[in-house]
Structures are given as C-alpha cells and as structure tokens.
C-alpha cells in the first residue's frame, strides 16, 4: 500500500476537523447541513472522512464555523506539525509504545491546546539539553573558570601552610607570629576577593539566559535558529550571504561575522555542487540513505553527508545530526540532534565512528550506535581532505559523521555501545573510559 505524505494525511482529515469545530461551537449536524444546503446524511459522510470536499462547499462550511477554509483543509500549520513530529521522533523507548505519527494532525485538530503544550515542552526540553551541554563544556573548558580555580586552590594552599606552621610551632617568636598572622589575613582577603569575582562571573553567565558568548557559540545558535537550511543561498547562491546576516544578533563582532561568512560560503559551495531540487528528489527516492546518492556527488561522501544534514524538515527530510572534527579530534562543526549529545568543545565518546574514521582515511563506514538512554542511531562516517591539495602538499584531513535516529531498533540489538562522552556517560565497564563519570 502506498504511504501517503503528511499533506495528504492532513487533507484526508478535513471531515474530522469539521466535526470537531461544529461540536465545539455547539451546532447540531442537521442545522449546519441546512445552513450550507446539503443533507445531514451527506454531512455525516463528510465528517467521517468518507467524502472529499473542496471549493464552494468548503468555503461555506468554513463561514458557518467561523474559521478560515485552510484551517479545515490543512489543519495544523507546518511549524506545529513539524514540532510534534520532532517530539515523537525523539521520544525515548522508556515512554512505552511509539507515538502514532500518522495521527498528528488529528491530535492538533481535536486538542489544539495539548498539541501546543507538547510542542512548547519539546522546544523547552531541547533548549535545556543544549544548556546542559553548554554548562558541561564550560565547566570543562572555560578559561576564566580554570584560571580562577587555580588561583583559589593556590590561595587555599598558602593559608593551609601558614596555619599548619602556627599550629605545629607554638613557640614562634612574636615577630614571626605577627608576620604569619598578617600573611593569613592577606591571603584570606585575597581568597574572598577571588571567590567573589568567580561568583560574579557565574552570575553574569546566568544573567545572559544561555545567550552565546564566543563566535562559535553565536554562529552555532544562528545555524540552529535557521534549522541549518538557507533557502536564499539555495536559490541565489553566495551573493545573498550579506543579506542573510543583516540584523542577526552578534554579527557586529568581526570574528563572529567572519566565521559565519566562511561557514555560509562552504554551505553555498555544497549547494552549488548538489542543487537542492534534484538532490532532495533523489534523497526521497533513496529513503535518505547516503550510499545511493554518492554518484550525484562524484563519490564525495562528506559532501553527501553535509547536504543530507541541510535538507529542510518541511520537505519530508528526517531529523539528522552532524559532527565534523579535524585531524586532532577537535569538533569544529556540529548540528545537534535530540538524544545524542555532541559537545561544543573537547571530544565526545572515543568509540564514535567519527574518530575511528581518522585512522582509516577515505574509507566510508556505516554503523549502528546504541546509546545508554536506550536509543539507537544510524551513523555514516568518512575521513577525507577538507579541500584539494597541490602536488607535494600535505592534505588537511577532516572526519564527518552523519546521525539519524532509528525508530524500529532499540539498545542491545547489536549496535556499537557508545556514550555522550566520558564525563557524563554511565557505562562503568567501558574499556575506552578516560575519566570517571560526573553523574555516577
């Protein structure tokens, strides 16, 4: 049986939306039928989705029900539909049976308040997950925190040493005792000042309500807000980059704007090599599997992975995550995806195929990854030169990993056990662990 697209499913539920709206308004079926000039039995067939309607009858029904015709024919708007679909796709298996994604529009039509709440909660959860990732990265890599902690520990060590001398040597000459007391007082004052400064630093971070600070964070937030898809570039090329960045918060900083322009130029180059319309059509035909798309890219695996990660969800693309690291293993670009934590700074799990690809240049790999939270992801990875190198020049290598959640597969089903990174990974028996977990 041919599977209907999301717009077709929404259109097929026109009758359900008419019935729901009529019930909410307290209008009897016979009265509504009489008002639009049809029989009650015919309206009953319509309301049970057994008759397709359109044109004047749809307009007349919308007028009597005091809504726009599109509210009956299309139902939930695309943004709400995508949000609910995203929430369903990222729900962990611990919640029980998989959500009925084929009935999303029915949910939005019958219970718009609950649908909006679910979409809002999903957005908030995604934001909180990003904040947790950011706090973990900041605790591990914030230079201000690292320097402050070093100073605090040095001061505490000096106080402890001085106090130890005073305790162990009760017969110290008054002149030296006074000097030690003065040192204790000065070090205590210094400790208080440094602790206050560190507290002020954290309070300022909290006052920003998660706003990005570094160029990488600002540009990443911009790409996330655009869902990593830029229609203007797809249609008109790199000449639109300036217009895209007009009014974007943070782009007044030269370093941030330079980084954003570079990444958008890379995006434009990818879009020129694999134009959206033919690539999206081929991706739909392939079920969004990378391998059948390689001939279109001349065998450039990383290009196919990046383009899949940039496809718009509104056109039917599934959720994708993307991670790119350099030869040192440093993550230089990421597209986050729910349930799979990709750190902003530092390294992730050493068992990710992203890092394994670095030891096997030009060898693409497809694998399944089982996470501790019970979700399974398909992963495609490759390590290849970032750009063409001249004769005798050493190529700059980068590894790319594309991620896609697997709905029908669950943890323990044969995938590679991986984690989000040692600091927050609960797998105690992992042979690749480099540090104890902070979460127990």
TrEMBL record:
InterPro entries: Cro/C1-type_HTH, Lambda_DNA-bd_dom_sf, ScfR_C. Residues 18-72 form the HTH cro/C1-type domain. PROSITE patterns: HTH_CROC1. GO terms for molecular function: DNA binding. This is XRE family transcriptional regulator. It comes from Rhodophyticola porphyridii.
């Amino acid at each position: 049986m041919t599977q209907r697209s999301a717009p077709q499913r929404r259109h097929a539920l026109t009758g359900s939306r008419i019935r729901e709206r009529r019930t909410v308004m307290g209008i009897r079926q016979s009265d509504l039928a009489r008002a639009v000039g049809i029989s009650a039995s015919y309206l009953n067939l319509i309301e049970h989705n057994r008759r397709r309607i359109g044109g004047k009858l749809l307009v007349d029904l919308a007028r009597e029900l005091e809504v726009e015709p599109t509210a009956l024919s299309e139902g939930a708007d695309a943004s709400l539909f995508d949000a609910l679909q995203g929430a369903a796709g990222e729900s962990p298996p611990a919640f029980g049976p998989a959500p009925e994604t084929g009935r999303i529009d029915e949910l939005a039509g019958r219970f718009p308040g609950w649908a909006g709440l679910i979409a809002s909660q999903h957005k908030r959860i995604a934001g909180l997950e990003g904040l947790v990732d950011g706090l973990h990265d900041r605790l591990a890599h914030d230079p201000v925190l690292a320097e402050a902690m070093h100073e605090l520990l040095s001061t505490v060590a000096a106080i402890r040493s001085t106090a130890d001398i005073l305790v162990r040597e009760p017969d110290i000459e008054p002149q030296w005792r006074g000097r030690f007391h003065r040192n204790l007082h000065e070090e205590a004052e210094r400790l208080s000042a440094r602790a206050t400064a560190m507290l002020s630093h954290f309070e300022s971070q909290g006052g920003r309500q998660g706003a990005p600070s570094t160029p990488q964070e600002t540009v990443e937030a911009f790409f996330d807000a655009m869902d990593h898809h830029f229609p203007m570039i797809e249609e008109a090329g790199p000449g639109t980059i300036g217009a895209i960045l007009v009014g974007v918060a943070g782009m007044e900083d030269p370093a941030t704007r330079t980084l954003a322009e570079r990444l958008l130029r890379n995006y434009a180059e990818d879009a020129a090599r694999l134009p959206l319309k033919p690539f999206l059509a081929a991706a739909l035909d392939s079920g969004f599997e990378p391998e059948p798309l390689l001939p279109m890219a001349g065998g450039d695996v990383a290009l196919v992975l990046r383009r899949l990660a940039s496809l718009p969800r509104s056109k039917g693309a599934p959720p994708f995550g993307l991670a790119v690291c350099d030869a040192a293993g440093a993550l230089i670009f990421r597209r986050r995806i729910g349930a799979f934590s990709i750190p902003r700074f530092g390294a992730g799990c050493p068992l990710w195929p992203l890092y394994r690809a670095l030891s096997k240049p030009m060898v693409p790999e497809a694998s399944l990854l089982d996470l501790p939270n019970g979700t399974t992801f398909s992963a495609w990875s490759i390590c290849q030169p970032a750009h063409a190198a001249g004769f005798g020049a050493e190529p700059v290598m980068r590894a790319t990993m594309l991620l896609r959640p697997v709905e029908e597969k669950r943890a323990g089903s044969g995938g590679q056990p991986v984690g989000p990174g040692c600091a927050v990974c609960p797998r105690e028996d992992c042979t690749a662990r480099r540090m104890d977990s902070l979460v127990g």
